[in-house]
Amino acid sequence: MINNSIGVLGCGWLGTPLAQKLVDLGFKVYGTTTSLSKMELLRDSGIEPYQIALHANSIQGEIEEFLKKINVLIINVPPRLRKSKTESYVEKMNLLHSKIKSSSVKHIIFASSTSVYGNLSEEITEDSVPQPITESGKQLLVCEKLFLKDKGFKTTIIRFGGLIGPNRHPVTMLSKKTGLANGNDPVNLIHLEDCIHIILTILKNGYWNEIFNAVYPFHPTKKEYYTEEALKRGIPAPGYGTIFQESTKAIVVSKNFINKSHKFYTSIVS
Q: What is the Cα Rg of the chain in Å?
């Protein structure tokens, strides 16, 4: 187990409960948020908070002070290119990388996405060659390589599937849609608790300089899964057409994690 202070850059939907769990396990945890109103919440959870915002040309907040306190950094900052089309995620990470290089950080976990694989049609494992088609996927892949190639620290990449958990589930948006034609596509999802479990396992076992897919090993079709989830919530099921397109989507397998004899804990249908 890593016996050092840990920084969580991005205490949002995943980062906050992760940081809280690390505190519960006895770690000294430093966390960042862009919101002043969230500083007190983090402090009350035993997390030493920093208000930090990454931009393409600058970093607002005491980034040097934050990085000085830690030597394990979990980067959990999604691209969100739809909300900020004018700022490059790659430029943000390049600037962050330059700050890390002059800090005490020796280990990094970088939260990425299975979007780096694009529309591969064969079963996807960590051995598959990424072919991103979205701008988000393309920029994430560039950033993965940026951290992996730097030998000044050890980096592990986690490529998360679709995130689900408390107050977050795709069915709530899909239930309002009709005429959907991708009902035969498999789902590649992962629950919040399993995200945290994977990160803690990497820290505990020192799985550095590796890549992990993080997707629950259950892949029903979208029609099957989202229809059932809608019924459980008492909301209208998504409207999939009677004629389905043949699926061109592949299932994503967490081969690396499972091969190390680790299991997932929370079913995506729980």
A: 19
Q: How far apart are CA 128 and CA 125, in angstroms?
A: 5
Distance separating alpha carbons of residues 91 and 134, to the nearest angstrom? 17
d(CA 111, CA 107): 13
C-alpha to C-alpha distance for 98 and 103, rounded to whole angstroms: 9
Instruction: Please check whether residue 31 is in contact with residue 15, taking contact to mean a CB–CB distance below 8 angstroms.
Output: yes
In a 10 Å sphere around its CB, with 0-12 CB exposed, 13-18 middle and 19+ buried, how is residue 61 labelled? middle
- Please report, in angstroms and rounded to a whole number, the separation of the first and last CA atoms in the chain: 30
Burial 241-261 (b: 16+ CB within 10 A, else e): eeebeeeebbbbbbbbbeeee
Res. 11: pLDDT tops 90: yes
Residue 161 has pLDDT above 60, yes or no: yes
**Domains parsed from the chain with CATH numbers:** 6-167+190-217+250-259 (3.40.50.720)
**Residue 115 vs residues 112, 120, 212, 239: alpha-carbon distances, Å:** 8, 10, 14, 25
Q: What is the pLDDT of residues 108-145, one digit of tens each?
A: 999 999 999 999 989 999 999 999 999 999 999 999 99
Separation of CA 212 from chain center: 11
By the 8 A CB rule, do 150 and 186 touch?
A: no
Of 196, 190, 192, 193, nearest to 213 by C-alpha is 190
Identify the pLDDT of residue 86.
67
